[in-house]
Amino acid sequence: MTGLVLVLNCGSSSIKYQVVDPVAGEAVVSGLVEQIGEPGGPVPDHAAGLQRIHGDLVDSGVDLAAVRAVGHRVVHGGRRFHAPTLITDAVLAEIERLSDLAPLHNPPNVVGITVARADFPDVPHVAVFDTGFFHGLPEAAATYAIDAGVAAQYGIRRYGFHGTSHEYVSQQTAALLGREPAEVNTIVLHLGNGASASAVRGGVAVETSMGLTPLEGLVMGTRCGDLDPGVLMHLKRTAGMGVAELDELLNRRSGLRGLCGVNDFRELLEQVSTGRPEATLAYGVYVHRLRKYVGAYLAVLGRVDAIAFTAGVGENVAAVREDALSGLDGLGITVDPQRNRSGRGARIISPDGARTAVLVVPTNEELAIARAAWGFV
Ligand code: ADP
């Protein structure tokens, strides 16, 4: 049987879409509608955004009748959802209820699902959760050491995000090594605008760097990652900052942008090359945090067969891969400079016979979502 899957990733002001042939494993067309709902802009709301996508698909010659399913990236599945889930009215209501946990992310996902169901009423719509792969984290890894009653009452635990990418990349890593996922222990470093690390033992996630929200862990483009929670109280007491201001500070004005004014890694590298001190420090903080996580996950896993770099920075910035893992030869981790700096796509960049293979593995969340949705056709 052949057919296509429309994959949608709805943000508050954008919809990313891709039409995927899940059997061939290829994207047929992809695109992005931005500035949704911005005053005076051309796209007043998500329904209009989807109409535009509909038009773009027709213009690019996609046979809409061949679209047999729609796959939706949903950020937070909470405790309730982990596996890809056929969307019914009841499921949608539950995803909406989870907005408490992900106020920035789940509401636009719900809007996107609602308009897409109206637009493609005759095919299954499937939710694929960013938290899903981390649903089974060991309790010791998922639990914050705060008052247990408060944590239980407010759903405070570590959920993890980017799960679709971590799962896909860990599986691809095993395939590239010619082994079964069940035999391989992998550290996955997803370094995009958002960034996260995971420790995967035999195909099962046992640790990850993001927590209740996607704010914890690595240094990101605009997010701070790990921070002493005391900083929040300090800023409230001394600077009088409220929740909205803190939210904005830590999510949008921190990370690389907070340190040196730019969040795009290409611009950062350019500034580093001119010797701008703020950029050099930002790069240093970024790489230091990454090394810390690699070290922690070596200890969590005990035996590490592979370290896989993925997403925009992980796939494209050889210097980050080299700097994050330098000096670890004694632990069996070596990056071959020649392999690291040449070649493209999925590849091994450690020397032959190294105890731990280091790899570049391009992520493909859309394909993973499309395949999950195709399971319901
Ligand atoms: P997201 O999906 O989280 O928006 P991506 O995985 O696309 O993010 O990664 C975006 C980041 O990757 C940006 O910081 C961008 O500068 C960086 N990036 C992408 N391509 C390159 C490249 N060729 N060289 C350096 N950085 C790159």
Description:
This protein is 40% helix and 18% strand. A hairpin with a 2-residue loop joins β8 and β9. The protein is globular, with a radius of gyration of 21 Å. The model has no long low-confidence stretch (mean pLDDT 96). The site of adenosine-5'-diphosphate has 12 residues, from α10 and α12.
Key features of this structure:
six-stranded mixed beta sheet; 377 residues; alpha/beta; 12 strands; transferase; binds adenosine-5'-diphosphate
Number of helices: 15
Distance between the termini: 10 Å
Tell me the strand percentage band: 15-25%
- Which bin fits the share of residues in helices? 40-55%
DSSP strand tally:
12
Helix/strand class? alpha/beta
Please state how the strands of the largest beta sheet are arranged side by side: 3-2-1-4-6-5
Main beta sheet: 6 strands, mixed
Please write the string of helix (H) and strand (E) elements: EEEHEEHHEHHHEEEHHHHHEHHHEEH
- Give the bound compounds: adenosine-5'-diphosphate
Which oligomeric form is depicted?
single chain
Rg is 21 Å
Low-confidence stretches: none
Roughly what is the average pLDDT, rounded to an integer? 96
Overall geometric form:
globular
Cofactor: Mg(2+); Mn(2+)
Binding site for Mg(2+): 9, 365
Family: Belongs to the acetokinase family.
Pathway: Metabolic intermediate biosynthesis; acetyl-CoA biosynthesis; acetyl-CoA from acetate: step 1/2
